[in-house]
Structure formats: C-alpha cells, structure tokens
Amino acid sequence: MHIFKNIFKKEEESQNSHGYRALNIRGTVLFGITAGISGISANLVFRKCLGVNYDTLKTFTSLATLPFLSSVVTYKLFVTDALYTGNISKENCVLRSFLVSLLCGVLHPTALAFSKNARLAVKYQTVPLPPKGRVILHWVLLCQTDIKLMIIPLIFHTSFGLLNGLTHYMIYESTHENHM
Fold first, then answer.
1. Which residue from 64, 91, 116, 169 could staple onto 36, CB 3.0 to 4.6 Å apart?
2. Rounded Cα gap, residues 108 and 153, in angstroms
3. Residues 6+ away with beta carbon under 8 Å from 83
4. pTM passes above 0.90
C-alpha cells in the first residue's frame, strides 16, 4: 500500500510542476512578444526620423525576432531558472524581471533599430553624414524629438516586467507550498 501512495504522490507532483511550467512559459512568451512589439515600434520611430524607405521587411523581421529571442532567453536564465532552484526572494525576482524588461525589452530593441536604420540612412544618403568628431551628437540632435516616443514602450514594458515577475513568484510560491 505504501508503494501506491508514493506513485500517486509523484504523479500529483508531476501535474503540479507541469502546471507551473505551462503558466511560466506563457508569461515568458508574452514577455518576449511585448519585446518584439517594442522593437517594431522603435523601428517605426527611427525609420520616420531618418527618412529610410529601403529594406523594410529585412529590418522589421530582425527587429521583431531578435528582441523576442533575447528577452525570452535572458528571462529564462535570470528569473525562471533561479525560481526553479529556489534561491531567489520575491524582491530579487521582481528586480531581475524589471532589469530584463528594461534591457532586453526596451534598450536593446532601441539600440538595434537605431544602428540598423542609421546604417541604411547613410547607405542610401537620406540624411547628411555627421561631421568628424561629433558623430554621436549629430545623431542625437537628429533624432531627439522622435526618440521621446519610445517612453511609451518603456513604461509599458517595464510595468509588464514587474507584473510578470510578481506573477511568476506567486505561482512558484503556490506550487512550492503544494509540494510541502
């Protein structure tokens, strides 16, 4: 009889663990989708700002997929795997989720969109070349009014990162309590 209790207990633990992983995967994929949307919006802003009309499909696909993949992999490494090992506090989980959302969801797509569209703008000569010695200042002055639109994805994605970190930690706690 004792053997059957252990078998049923292991089966129940497996079902609880599968539910946790399924919810965790959904949240992580949604996290990556919002990073992809942030990359698309950054691409739209910089294409308009720099007057680029070439290689549209090439830049949009790379700016949708690279932020998606980088945010999913980074979130899994820094937040999800730390939750599986059990050595992360609630505050640390939320902080890590926030930092991943800021870096991989907003800053990485923005920098990637800027570099791709600036390269295309110089290649097709839609903007004047920067003078020697003041390259960064030239690009900042050229895009400073349009880059302010990126505050919308910044607020959205960082708040979503905070909520996602809280949700994953609460799911982890409830699953951990069910196993005890």
1. 64
2. 12
3. 24, 93, 168, 169, 172
4. no
Look up residue 16 and give its amino acid.
N
Kindly write down the DSSP assignment for every residue of 53-94, as one continuous string: -S-HHHHHHHHHHHHHHHHHHHHIIIIIHHHHHT---HHHHH
Q: Tell me which residue of 46, 11, 58 sits closest to 148, measured CA to CA.
A: 46
- Going by C-alpha positions, the residue among 166, 121, 157, 129 that lies closest to residue 35 is 157
Q: What are the φ/ψ torsions at residue 87 (nearest 5 degrees)? A: -110, 50
- Tell me which residue of 23, 41, 29 sits closest to 156, measured CA to CA: 41
Identify the three-state secondary structure at position 124: coil
Residues 13, 14, 16, 18, Cα dihedral to 10°: 160
* Cβ-based neighbour number of residue 153 at 10 Å: 23
Please write the tens of the pLDDT for every residue from 65-102. Answer: 999 999 999 999 999 888 888 888 999 999 999 999 99
